[in-house]
Structure formats: structure tokens, C-alpha cells
Write a structure and sequence with these properties.
Blueprint lengths: L5 H9 L32 E7 L8 E7 L4 E7 L4 E7 L4 E7 L4 E7 L4 E7 L4 E7 L10 E7 L4 E6 L5 E8 L4 E6 L5 E4 L2 E2 L4 E8 L3 E4 L2 E2 L4 E8 L3 E8 L4 E7 L4 E10 L2 E7 L4 E10 L2 E7 L4 E9 L2 E7 L4 E9 L2 E7 L4 E10 L2 E7 L4 E6 L8 E2 L2 E7 L4 E6 L5 E2 L2 E7 L4 E7 L4 E7 L4 E3 L6 E6 L2 E7 L4 E9 L2 E7 L4 E6 L1
Parallel strand pairs: 1-3, 2-4, 3-5, 4-6, 5-7, 6-8, 7-9, 8-10, 9-11, 10-12, 11-13, 11-14, 12-15, 13-16, 14-17, 15-18, 16-19, 17-19, 18-20, 19-21, 20-22, 21-23, 22-24, 23-25, 24-26, 25-27, 26-28, 27-29, 28-30, 29-31, 29-32, 30-33, 31-34, 32-35, 33-36, 34-37, 36-38, 37-39, 37-40, 38-41, ...
Length: about 500
């Protein structure tokens, strides 16, 4: 059973959830992710440097560079507007550099060959930057690299990299209404978005190959769109920090060993969509902080694991898992949140930890064999408040196990628990403390149990409680003790060899 430590979660909140919630950096193939500061020093063969400065009244300079061979260098420095810079290199170990200051410029870099490097630094608005690299050294080859720094608005960036081992680094992008499209084909490719600051920016990333990595270190701003589509094995997409409102993160992964990780998401009305298909997929969210956020995750395959923690109000989380040995964890601190988790398959494991908040709704549906569900509301940290929550659990087929613990030395009131098990050899472990709580249990099948923790007698304590059990089958058991005032108890058993033992104090 997947059991997230609620105490550790509380410590994370006490520390400000900063370092504790950050996910580990994925291991990179890249042993040197920087282009040397003296970019032209490595050009041992042909070198060309061009400087153009157009005045405000004269615009429209044009640069066309073509180099063939190995270890060539091309450097362009342009100031002004409406300039056209085209640089093409054919061969291995070639270098390109462009520094552009101005508006409405067009920069195009072509490189065919291996171990090529291209670097553009751009300041201005409405510019168009295009990179195209091709080179293939086969599996395990480490070859071409692109780096971009840009400040300005309404810029368009297109990156196309062919087969082989390529890197694309967006080191620093600041501005609004920018569009970035990156396409990588082949094997051993990686993409890194290091620092993105601005609004209404659009990123579309597509990778095909064996080992793809997309890492977003920091995305700050509002109304940004990030779409990542990865196909192949051992893909990894990670967001270390997303800070802003109305952002959209749409992701898809096809293949084996895929992993998507949102370490920290801060803001309101963000829309996060995660879709994974394949084996051993895992999605993990360290901390989602804010209001009106939506998270929709789907996993298909074997051995999937899904985990999310939310702090805030009016958030909506929906998950669907299909396959064998899936696991799920959902944790919430806040009010009016909705969590829905549907697990289809065998050996599924669901853990809900609602350890502080009110008017939250948790719904878990499990279809399959050997399913387990653990619901912890305010336990074991009984100092945390939980009020007016609704917990619904449906388990179908045989040998299902559900454990529900509500503890409230401070307050745990007006909670509603609705548990349904349909099959044979099902068990419900129950510990409930608090007032005005309602528990409804329905079990259909033979040899079902409603007992306490570790298969002992269940414990229910508090005032104005409602406890209802309906069992339909043979050899069912209800055993527990109740300490309450003004409570209602109803046990209905239909079948032979059923047992009910309830001690009231």
C-alpha cells in the first residue's frame, strides 16, 4: 500500500515547500552544456565576422554566409531593423554566432554535419529566428547544439533537428506573445528551457527517439501555453517551477519508462493535462499551490504510479489509470477541491490524504482484483482540521480492501463517507472520531468484513453520528464499538452465517 507520510507533508508546508518539494534533476547525457565564451576561438579553418549597423532612417541590411568544410566559424553582429541574416554551414565541428539588436529581423541558421554549434542572442520585437541542424552519428552519438537568449515581444523561434544526438537550450527568454516551436528527430536528443519570463508565450515541442529529455527550470508569467509530445523510450519531461495564472501545460508521452514531474506549480486557473501510454509510466506533482487549477491525468499501461499534492481552493483533479499494479496518491490542503480517481486493472493501490480543509470531494472507483484504498482524513496528525468533506469509494470484484481513518481531537465534523464493495472476501477497516459524521457501507458478496484497524474492532466516537451497514451474502461480519450521544446505528445483513457485534457506551 502506498502510504504518503502526512507528517512529512506538514513539514514541507512549515518550511515553505521550497527545497523539500523540488524534484530531483534528471540525469543528462550532456557533459558540457555551454558554448565557449570566446565562440570563434575554436574555428581553426575559415572564419568570418560581419558587423552591420543600420540607422533609424535606413533599414533592411542583408547577410548571406556559406561555409563548407570542418571547424569553420561565422559571427554576425547586427543592430537595426528589418535585417535578413542567413548562415549556412556544411561539415563537422562548425560554429555559428549571431547577436541581433532591433526589430523585425529575420535570422536563419542552417548546419549539416556533426558537432555543430549555433548561438543566437536577440534583443527586440517581431523577430523571426530559425534553426535547422542535421547530423547522425548513430545511437550514442553526441553531436549538435543550439542555444538561444532572447528579450522582446512577438518573436517567433523555430528549431528543427534531425537524427543523432542534439541539444536545444533556451537559456533566457523574456517577453510577451513569443512563439517557440522545437522538433527533434532521432536518438539521444534533449531540450532545456531554463528561464522563461513573460505572458502569452506559446511553446510547442515534439520529440521522437530513444532518449528524449525536456526540462523547464522556471516558467514565470500568465497565459502561457506549453505543449510537449514525446514518442519513444525513456522520455522525461519535468517542470521545476511554474509561477503564474491561466497557464496551459499539455503533455503526451508514448513508449516505455516515461516520467512527467511538476515540482512546484503556483498560481490560479492553470490547466495541467498529462497523458501517458506505455509501461512503467510515472507522474508526480510535488506541490500545486493556488486556486481554480485543473489537473487531468491519464495513464495506460503497466506499473503506472500517479501522485499529486494540492494546497488551495476550488481545484479539480481527475485521473484515470488502466493496467496492472497502478498506484495513486492524492493529498489536499484547502477547501472546495474535487478529486476523482478511476483505476481499472489488477493490484491497484489508492491513497487519499485529506488532512486539512473543508467541503472537499474525493471519489475513487476501482475495478479489478486485489484493489486497496486508504483514506486518511486528519490522521495521524489530529491537530489538523477537516470539515464537511465527502468521500466516495466503489470497489468491484473480489478481495478488495478499504481503510478509513478520521481522527479529530480538534474538529472533524459533518463528513460523509460512502463505501461500496461488490464481491467476495472484501474488508473495510474503520476508525472515526468526531461529530455529525455519516458513514454508509454496502457490501454485496460472501465473507465480507467491517472491522477496525489491523482487523480488530472498529471504533466510532462522537456525537450525532449516523452509521449504516448493509451486507448481502453469506458469512459476513460487523464488529466494533461506539461511544456517542444521539447517534443512529443500522446494520442489515441478508444471508446465512452472518455476525454483528456492536458495543455502545
Amino acid at each position: 500500500m502506498l502510504k504518503k507520510s502526512l507528517i512529512s507533508c506538514a513539514i514541507v508546508m512549515a518550511l515553505g515547500y521550497g527545497n523539500a518539494a523540488l524534484a530531483a534533476q534528471p540525469q543528462s547525457k550532456n557533459t558540457q552544456d555551454t558554448i565557449q565564451s570566446d565562440f570563434m576561438a575554436g574555428a581553426q579553418q575559415n572564419r568570418v565576422e560581419i558587423n552591420q549597423n543600420s540607422s533609424e532612417s535606413v533599414e533592411g541590411n542583408e547577410i548571406n554566409l556559406l561555409q563548407s568544410g570542418e571547424t569553420n566559424g561565422a559571427k554576425a553582429t547586427v543592430t537595426g531593423g528589418s535585417n535578413h541574416i542567413t548562415s549556412e554551414q556544411k561539415g563537422d565541428s562548425n560554429l555559428q554566432l549571431a547577436t541581433i539588436t532591433g526589430d523585425s529581423n529575420h535570422i536563419t541558421h542552417y548546419q549539416s554535419g556533426n558537432k555543430a554549434k549555433s548561438n543566437v542572442e536577440l534583443t527586440g520585437d517581431a523577430n523571426m529566428v530559425s534553426f535547422n541542424q542535421s547530423g547522425d552519428t548513430g545511437r550514442g552519438g553526441i553531436t549538435n547544439q543550439i542555444r538561444l537568449k532572447a528579450q522582446g515581444d512577438d518573436n517567433t523561434v523555430n528549431v528543427t533537428q534531425g537524427g543523432g544526438g542534439h541539444w536545444t537550450f533556451i537559456d533566457d527568454l523574456q517577453g510577451h506573445n513569443n512563439e517557440v516551436t522545437i522538433e527533434q528527430q532521432g536518438e539521444w536528443n534533449e531540450i532545456r528551457l531554463k528561464e522563461i519570463i513573460g505572458e502569452d508565450n506559446e511553446f510547442e515541442i515534439e520529440q521522437e527517439g530513444y532518449w528524449n529529455v525536456v526540462t523547464v527550470n522556471e516558467l514565470t508569467g500568465n497565459d502561457n501555453d506549453l505543449e510537449v509530445n514525446q514518442q519513444g523510450d525513456r522520455n522525461n519531461f519535468q517542470v521545476d517551477l511554474l509561477n503564474g495564472d491561466d497557464n496551459n501545460l499539455s503533455t503526451e508521452q508514448y513508449g516505455n519508462n516515461n516520467s512527467i514531474d511538476f515540482a512546484i506549480v503556483e498560481g490560479e486557473e492553470n490547466n495541467l493535462i498529462v497523458q501517458q501510454r506505455g509501461e512503467q509510466n510515472s507522474f508526480s506533482s510535488g506541490m500545486i499551490v493556488g486556486a481554480d487549477n485543473k489537473l487531468n491525468a491519464q495513464q495506460s499501461g503497466n506499473e503506472n504510479a500517479l501522485e499529486v499534492e494540492m494546497i488551495g481552493s476550488d481545484n479539480n483533479f481527475t485521473a484515470l489509470q488502466t493496467g496492472l499494479e497502478n498506484k495513486s496518491y492524492m493529498g489536499a490542503v484547502g477547501d472546495n477541491n474535487k478529486f476523482t480517481n478511476i483505476q481499472l486493472g489488477n493490484n491497484n493501490d489508492s491513497h487519499i490524504a485529506n488532512f486539512n480543509g473543508s467541503d472537499n470531494t474525493f471519489t475513487v472507483n476501482q475495478v479489478g482484483n486485489d484493489n486497496k484504498a486508504l483514506v486518511q482524513t486528519s490522521y495521524p496528525n489530529v491537530s489538523l482540521d477537516t470539515t464537511g468533506n465527502t468521500i466516495k469509494l466503489d470497489q468491484l470484484q473480489n478481495e478488495n480492501d478499504a481503510s478509513v481513518t478520521l481522527s479529530s481531537e480538534v474538529a472533524s465534523v459533518n463528513n460523509t463517507i460512502d463505501l461500496v464493495q461488490d464481491g467476495a472476501l472484501n474488508a473495510i477497516d474503520l476508525m472515526l472520531e468526531g461529530s455529525n459524521n455519516t458513514v454508509d457501507i454496502a457490501q454485496t458478496g460472501d465473507m465480507n468484513m467491517v472491522v477496525g484497524i489491523d482487523q480488530g474492532a472498529f471504533v466510532i466516537a462522537g456525537n450525532d453520528l449516523s452509521f449504516n451497514v448493509v451486507q448481502n451474502g453469506t458469512g459476513n461480519l460487523v464488529e466494533g464499538g461506539m461511544s456517542q450521544l444521539n447517534g443512529d446505528v443500522s446494520v442489515t445483513q441478508v444471508g446465512d452465517y452472518n455476525t454483528t457485534t456492536i458495543v455502545q457506551q
